[in-house]
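Following up on my earlier thread - several people asked me to post the actual chain instead of describing it. Fair enough. Here it is, all 182 residues.
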Amino acid sequence: VFTMGIANTGLNAEAVMNGKDPQVLMNLQMFRYMILGGAGNTLGLVLLMMKSKSVQLKTIGRLSIVPGICGINEPVIFGSPIVFNPVLGIPFIIMPVISTVLGYLVQLFGLVKPGYIIDPSFTPFFIQAYLSALDWRNVVFVFLLVIISIFVYLPFFRIFEKKILAEELLNAESQSETAASF
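Reply from S.P.:
Thanks for posting it. Predicted structure:
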């Protein structure tokens, strides 16, 4: 997808250079929609973690927000973990599909200009959104994708959070029993 996105962004850049509108919808901008906050569009999950009742999840969320804004999500991938986690794995797979389909549609209907500029990787997502086509509407769209991501992750996050809270309670009880025995 990434290689095709770069090539198609080049085709769009050529069209713009010749005074035409960019027409190729499967461009690098589409790839950016897919990985908003990192693989799995985890920025919504990170925001949910930041507001969690769980100390562990809140800490992971706070540590992951700045890297997530720049498209780096290893702290949340391995800190949660999402790896080998069927509950968080479901929205991790679904959300990129949703964002790609919506990204295609907003470009198709002219709500957002197709990307024609190859923006630098690991730049904050909202800056990348603007730089890809010099279109402020794309910035609004990516913030909308973050909100959608929150709602897609929310039911799965609640299940996962409940499990983590139960583990934290069990650990706290175990530690208090150990302290009481001394």
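The CA atoms of residues 77 and 130 lie 27 Å apart. That should answer part of your original question.
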